[in-house]
Amino acid sequence: MKSHWQSVEQDKLKKEKDDLSSMRRNCRATKRQNQDLIERVATQEKQIEAQTFVMNNLRNGIEYLKEHCTKADRGGEFTSVSCTLIQIST
């Protein structure tokens, strides 16, 4: 026959086991969330790199057209539609 103390100890052990199981579930859930966040950040970094690349290309293209158009204006050459747009926008 079980004594009162054995019953109390078994209850404590059962509670600790349940607590440990709960902690493991929470840990797994947190690990999944962290992995999702890491993937999301990596995707956003790639998007930022792509946007930076596009912006640099646009900036370089605009600078090229500005230089090209000022040379064309000085030389009296035919100005293209691009030059006209650049002159309007600046």
Oligomer: single chain
Radius of gyration: 34 Å
Low-confidence stretches: none
- List the helices and strands in order: HH
The helix count comes to 2
The overall strand count is 0
Major β-sheet profile = none
Instruction: Tell me the domain tally.
Output: 1
Determine the mean pLDDT: 84
Distance between the termini: 95 Å
Relative helix content: over 70%
Structural class: mainly alpha
Shape: rod-shaped
Strand content: under 5%
Describe the structure.
Helices cover 90% and strands 0% of the residues. It is built from two helices and no strands. The chain has one domain. Helix 1 (4-75) packs across helix 2. The chain is mainly α. It has helices at residues 4-75, 81-89.
Task: Considering the chains and any ligands shown, give keywords for the structure.
rod-shaped; 90 residues; mainly alpha; 0% strand
